[in-house]
Write a structure and sequence with these properties.
Rossmann fold, binds flavin-adenine dinucleotide, binds uridine-5'-diphosphate
Length: about 375
């Protein structure tokens, strides 16, 4: 008999939820992570008494009451509502695309006027069956918004032409004909009071966690430690890149302490021009309505990914999806390993989707 029922590789949300659930059912779990902290990409670091979202801004949102209740067992959430602002040259727009944006852009005041403007632009474009991000964006909001708020941001974010990107990426953003700047349509939204680490600490409470441990440094040893493995790292790496390497988009973060109380007046400001090298500036204190004397901001720069860099966003284009499907087919035959999470499933998952997926995978094993 192995020493553990489960070896969980990765202490991000997927690994932490899975470990929590099986431990609750009496199983013995070991969680390992190659980083020097638990929590994966939701980890926060305290600087100047402010929780810094170290791997990019994270706003929790879900429509699913069961998932909302689940996270609320561990930590209370505040009423933060994400309402990013976009700067394009010297113009300022509200996001997501809503009546405020349409008014700022065209001076229109009613939904009817805004719809007419968009319809006219869509008609001129001649797009009827959008096949890529550019066509999808134009057919949703017309050419003006595409040019000012989408094309530049998207092409620097992804390092690819908008024509070469999948349409689903832009469908993440709501388009609405009300004066509502809430970035999400979901019923529940907020930031954990005290930061995401509280959520992770609650999930991993009482579970053995070993940090600074890379599964691949001694995969034979770790594999024989447990009856089953839950793998939340990169699936191509697990299979020795035998069908090729899956591509990602990476990021660079430049974090600065600023000696002012309020730097930009909002947690998230997007810079949608192609020529500004960063995509957004995050002012972390606004996620928790902080009143500290100083502030901490992070410039987020898109970065070309190569092996060894952090893998932030899967590039779900046809070429990469085809490679992923080969790994997936292999993984389905593997009875010892459960693959889950953003890296193992090569999917642009949000936190609530990761939690939902981890919960349903634990249900499958009981
Ligand atoms: P991860 O958090 O990546 O965890 C995987 C863990 O596995 C890591 O800790 C890693 O160190 C470890 N690991 C990998 N390989 C090994 C190995 N070989 N050995 C040991 N350990 C290993 N979601 C939202 O809902 N709202 C948002 O606002 C939001 N913003 C985001 C912003 C950015 C910039 C990014 C990149 C993502 C954002 N997300 C957001 C998505 C969110 O981060 C993910 O859905 C979630 O954190 C994924 O959890 P995970 O457990 O799958 O992966
Ligand atoms: N996007 C854009 N302009 C913006 C914000 C987003 O064109 O001001 C596009 C861009 O392609 C981005 C996608 O919408 O990758 C999804 O945006 P989201 O804010 O959901 O990205 P994330 O927070 O996951 O990086």
């Amino acid at each position: 008999m192995a020493q553990y029922d489960y070896l969980v590789v990765g202490s991000g949300l997927f690994g932490a939820v899975f470990a929590h659930e099986v431990t609750k059912k009496g199983k013995k779990c070991l969680v390992i992570d190659k980083r020097n902290h638990a929590g994966g990409n939701v980890f926060c670091e305290k600087i100047e008494e402010i929780n810094i979202h170290k791997y990019g801004a994270h706003i929790f949102h879900t429509n699913d009451k069961a998932i909302w209740d689940y996270v609320n067992q561990f930590v209370e959430f505040n009423r933060y509502t994400n309402s990013p602002v976009a700067f394009y040259k010297d113009e300022v727009y509200n996001l997501p695309f809503n009546m405020n944006t349409f008014h700022q852009l065209w001076g229109v005041k009613t939904p009817e006027e805004a719809k007419a403007k968009i319809e006219e632009q869509v008609k001129t474009s001649g797009i009827t069956n959008p096949k890529n991000l550019e066509e999808q964006a134009i057919s949703l909001v017309g050419i003006d918004i595409y040019k000012k708020l989408i094309k530049g941001y998207t092409e620097k974010q992804w390092g690819r032409k908008a024509k070469e990107l999948p349409a689903f990426i832009i469908k993440r953003l709501p388009v609405r004909f009300t004066y509502d700047n809430n970035y999400f349509n979901d019923k529940y939204q907020g930031i954990p009071i005290g930061g995401y680490n509280k959520l992770i600490d609650g999930l991993l409470d009482g579970i053995e966690v070993k940090l600074n441990v890379d599964f691949f440094e001694n995969r034979e040893l770790y594999t024989q430690l447990a009856d089953k493995i839950v793998f939340t790292g990169k699936i191509d790496e697990y299979y020795n890149n035998q069908f090729g390497t899956l591509e990602y988009r990476s990021l660079k973060f430049d974090t600065k302490v600023i000696e002012v109380e309020n730097f930009q007046g909002n947690a998230v400001i997007n810079y949608t021009e192609r020529d500004v090298p960063y995509t957004r500036i995050i002012e972390h204190k606004h996620f928790e309505f902080g009143t500290q004397k100083k502030t901490v901001i992070t410039y987020e720069y898109p970065d070309e990914w190569s092996l060894g860099k952090e893998s932030y966003y899967p590039v779900n284009d046809d070429k990469n999806n085809a490679v992923y499907n080969k790994y997936k087919a292999l993984s389905e035959k593997d009875t010892k390993v459960i693959f889950g999470g953003r890296l193992a499933e090569y999917k642009y998952y949000d936190m609530h989707q990761i939690i939902g997926s981890a919960l349903s995978k634990t249900k499958l094993v009981f």
